[in-house]
Amino acid sequence: MLNKIIFLLLFLTGTANAHGVGYKNSDLKAVPLEFFYSTGEKMSYCDVKIFSPVDNKFTFQTGRTDLNGRFSFIPDVNGKWLIIVNDGQGHQCNAELEINSNLNLNSEQDIKINNNNNNNLILNSVLGVSIIFNLAFIIKKRYAHK
């Protein structure tokens, strides 16, 4: 009798289905952007953070630019979006885009990309002052012993 119960439990149970996955083509409009250095070189494989107008504390989307410095996203609300691209070597580009009520980039809006090299400017300033003081110290030491 026990064998029949075990048999029934093992072989007559229904099939268990796990969560499935899939994909479909989307007709949603993406906002494509290209990021580059002032030299024209593409900002390839740089970190991207996108902040929604609804919540500017948490990222809406993160990722990386491709080989050609390109990145796209699909906005879900209208308003001013902030896109930050950072190469991890002191170069950061901030772009603020106004998305209209149709969730498209405003057509009359030029995309302006502001280069933030503040880290490099501060670092270079400190380095320059340091070099000047070190040279003055070396010259003073050299002439003090003569």
Any descriptors?
alpha+beta; two-stranded antiparallel sheet; 25% helix; five-stranded antiparallel sheet; elongated; 146 residues; 2 helices
Describe this structure in words.
- The chain is built from 2 helices and 7 strands.
- The termini are far apart.
- Strands 3-2-5-6-7 form a 5-stranded antiparallel sheet, with no helix packed on it. A two-stranded antiparallel ribbon has the order 1-4.
- The protein has 146 residues and is of the alpha+beta class.
- Secondary-structure content class: alpha+beta
β-strand number:
7
DSSP strand content? 25-35%
Regions with little confidence, pLDDT below 50 for 5+ residues: none
Q: Tell me the helix content.
A: 25-40%
Spatial strand sequence of the major β-sheet: 3-2-5-6-7
Instruction: From the alpha carbons, calculate the radius of gyration and give it in angstroms.
Output: 28 Å
Shape: elongated
How confident is the prediction overall: mean pLDDT?
82
The largest pleated sheet is described as: 5 strands, antiparallel
How do you describe this structure in short?
The protein has helices at residues 2-11, 118-144; strands at residues 31-34, 47-51, 61-64, 70-73, 79-86, 92-99, 113-116. By secondary structure, it is of the alpha+beta class.
Give me the secondary-structure topology.
Layout: H1 2-11, E1 31-34, E2 47-51, E3 61-64, E4 70-73, E5 79-86, E6 92-99, E7 113-116, H2 118-144
Antiparallel strand pairs: 1-4, 2-3, 2-5, 5-6, 6-7
